[in-house]
Structure formats: C-alpha cells, structure tokens
Specification:
Blueprint: H1 3-16, H2 19-33, H3 39-53, H4 58-72, H5 78-109, H6 113-120
Length: 130
C-alpha cells in the first residue's frame, strides 16, 4: 500500500473512533512520533546488551561441559581442576557484570529488573539475575 493510501486509511479510522478513545490514540501517535533515542543512549544500551547476552564461545563451553562431567565422576586431574576453577571464576565474574548491566539497562529503559530479566532469560542460559 503506498504511503498516501496508508495515511488516508489512518485518517479515516481516526474519524470513526469514539471521542473517549481518541485521546489514547493521539497519545500513542505522540510516542511513535518521538525522535529516535540519542546515539549516546543507544551506544550505552548496545554495550549493556552485549554484556547481558555474552556467552562463552562454543569450544570453551564444550570444554567446560567436559570438565564438569569429569568432575561429577571424580575423574579430574589437578590441571583440569585448575582449568575448571578458572572457567567457574570467569563465569561468576560475568554473572556479576551481567546483573550490573541488567540493572543499568532497566534504569535506562525505565523498567523493573524482573521484567527486563525475563526478556533475556532462556533455557540455554541457566543464570537468572533476579
């Protein structure tokens, strides 16, 4: 549909709306017409999203899974145990950074932390911030 036809359709629909719903539609249109967020806020949001969504690269995740399996069966060498501790420390540090990023992004988006965390939680990511 060409833009002019869409605009005419929108105007026709506005004409059909009852007065009590018109205010809500105008409010929605005002929000939609706001300029895009500033690049500084966008770059900060992008940085926070990168922290929140970070995962170990696949080869490292596979190695960690192998080490955890070996640990469960009591088959770790001392060197493997140290390697496992290194991975676990790294993940623990990331969990702290992720929570900090979630809190900052929740403030930036004016959302509560639980709602925001639900947007980013997935079965593949066992850590939940809230």
């Amino acid at each position: 549909m060409p833009p002019l036809d869409i605009r005419q359709r929108a105007i026709a629909l506005l004409d059909q709306l009852p007065q009590n719903k018109l205010a809500a539609v105008v409010q929605l249109l005002e929000v939609l017409a706001e300029p895009a967020p500033q690049t500084l806020a966008s770059s900060e949001e992008a940085r926070l999203l990168a922290v929140i969504q970070w995962q170990l690269p696949a080869p490292e995740q596979n190695r960690l899974d192998d080490l955890r399996d070996k640990c469960e069966w009591g088959e770790l060498t001392d060197a493997e145990h140290q390697e496992l501790l290194h991975y676990e420390d790294r993940l623990e540090q990331h969990h702290v950074e992720r929570l900090e990023a979630l809190i900052a992004l929740a403030k930036l988006r004016n959302l509560d932390l639980i709602s925001l965390n639900q947007q980013f939680s997935s079965p593949a990511q066992p850590f939940n911030a809230a």
